[in-house]
Design goal:
Layout: H1 33-41, H2 48-54, H3 61-76, E1 79-83, E2 85-88, H4 117-129, E3 134-137, H5 147-160, E4 165-168, H6 171-181, H7 185-195, E5 197-199, H8 210-216, H9 223-235, E6 240-246, H10 252-269, E7 272-279, H11 286-291, H12 298-311, E8 317-318, H13 322-325, H14 327-333, E9 340-343, H15 350-353, H16 364-373, E10 377-380, E11 386-391, E12 394-403
Parallel strand pairs: 1-9, 1-10, 2-3, 3-4, 4-5, 6-7, 7-8
Antiparallel strand pairs: 11-12
The structure holds ligand V47 and iron/sulfur cluster.
Ligand V47 binds near residues 101, 241, 243, 321 and 350.
Length: about 400
């Protein structure tokens, strides 16, 4: 292939952009922040080339943010959502070896653990006592645990604490259950739903493009499977989230490709609620060691937030997960496309094992203060975006209110 070098006039809104190896290329001189801005204004969908363009260092971040903020306010007004939640990782023992993961342990590793039913129920009790509306449950794929064990985790929690919404098991785990049981995705999800599963988190997405996926987690659920599982969940009325792990070996093309694949699945099945961009945390990971990688910069975090908001025109919410971003960046992200900050979060391990220095839990007062300081109106939501109404006499008592209004 012959590489073309074309010089275009240097103007802040007209930048040369050639990705000759990639499909879907359109003429670079047709892309500018002005043309993208007009499309955003008219609610038109941005394409792959435009998404990649927005990632260029010489496209001013503040102008990308302005566009993303427009979409954010169109969809969610001035609201910034949070919830009161806790995490449960019932085991860190995992058959897989994703090279970005500092959380997993081998079967005989002294770091490995497996929680008993009593420990799991104690976590449920602690959650309810602290007014949590949600428990986020993910873990390793334990070599010796059958599907029934995973169903039981959901069942005992749901039977004992029926008010606690269980957002449990990623598509990677569902795919593992398929392997264990030889049942279909639909059957597996029906069994879990009947046991008390309320919704699914967005993990396991990483980067969908094979060029990257094959290098960071080639063994686990492939891209087609991840999407099939989420589509099937949506068909069953189970809401799900989606993530993207960025800031490692991928480039802008892989990121935008990832976002477009999510947008296409959402067009078909419509059950994604929230997109969460996840910044790679390098500590204690094989990937960082092999490639000498560092954490992505704050600018990269904010640009990814803004580009995600602009590309995912059919996702109602974009989350700035404060545990992963840090409190300051999460607060700033509320003006870069994000409308949700996740929750109080108790017992987070995946990011803390990989070097996160954020606190283990944040109080409701602190969350509300950081949202107000960012010029937004805090709204406590449940997992499926209904308002939560608290008893003023007893903050751990709550009822479900109206769905939040989404534009
Ligand atoms: O799939 C693992 C990521 C994910 C590292 O749905 C890492 O509301 C960065 O999906 N550096 C699990 N990321 C977490 C997850 C999640 C988190 C918060 C909210 C929701 C939601 C979902 O964590 C994994 C992987 O992509 N991960 N190791 C690491 N070293
Ligand atoms: Fe296992 Fe999940 Fe870690 Fe991969 S990311 S090694 S599947 S725990």
């Amino acid at each position: 292939m012959i590489a073309l070098t074309v010089r275009l006039p240097q103007h802040k809104n007209i930048l040369p952009f050639y990705s000759a190896k990639r499909p879907g290329m359109i003429r670079a001189d047709k892309i500018s922040l002005d043309t993208i801005g007009k499309k955003v204004e008219n609610g038109e969908r941005l394409n792959l080339d435009e998404g990649v363009f927005l990632y260029r260092d010489d496209v001013p971040l503040n102008e990308v943010a302005e566009l993303a903020n427009k979409v954010r306010e169109r969809k969610n007004g001035n609201y910034a959502y949070f919830n009161i939640n806790t995490h449960l990782n019932p085991t860190n023992v995992c058959v897989y070896r994703c090279n970005f993961c500092a959380f997993r342990a081998d079967l005989r590793d002294p770091r490995g653990y497996l929680m008993s039913d009593e420990q799991i129920l104690a976590r449920g009790q602690e959650a309810v006592d602290n007014g949590c509306t949600e428990m986020h449950i993910v873990g390793g794929l334990h070599h010796q645990k059958k599907f029934d064990w995973y169903v039981n985790v959901v069942k005992i929690l749901h039977d004992t604490f029926p008010m606690l919404h269980l957002k449990a098991w990623t598509a990677v785990e569902i795919n593992w259950f398929e392997f264990l049981t030889k049942k279909s995705v639909r059957e597996i999800l029906e069994i879990l739903r009947d046991a008390g599963l309320g919704s699914m988190p967005g993990g396991g997405a990483e980067i969908f493009h094979r060029e990257v996926r094959d290098q960071i987690c080639e063994h686990k659920a492939d891209t087609g499977k991840w999407h099939e599982i989420h589509r099937t969940a949506h068909e069953l009325g189970i809401k799900t989230n989606a993530t993207m792990l960025y800031g490692h070996i991928e480039n802008a093309y892989h990121r935008v490709d990832h976002l477009i694949r999510l947008r296409e699945t959402q067009d078909v099945s419509g059950g994604f609620q929230t997109f969460i961009p996840l910044a790679f945390h390098p500590d204690n990971t094989e990937l960082a060691e092999l490639r000498k990688l560092k954490k992505p910069s704050v600018m990269m975090d904010l640009r990814t937030m803004a580009v995600s908001r602009l590309m995912l025109d059919n996702f109602p919410h974009i989350k700035a997960y404060w545990i992963m971003l840090g409190i300051g960046t999460a607060q700033t992200a509320l003006s870069y496309g994000a409308d949700d900050i996740d929750g109080t979060v108790r017992h987070e391990l995946i990011y803390h094992d990989a070097g996160a220095t954020t606190p283990e839990v944040m109080s409701v007062e602190d969350i509300q203060r950081l949202i107000v300081e960012a010029g937004r109106e805090p709204v406590e939501r449940d997992t499926v975006y209904n308002r939560v109404i608290r008893d003023p006499q007893n903050q751990s008592e709550w009822t479900t209110g109206e769905p939040v209004e989404v534009g």
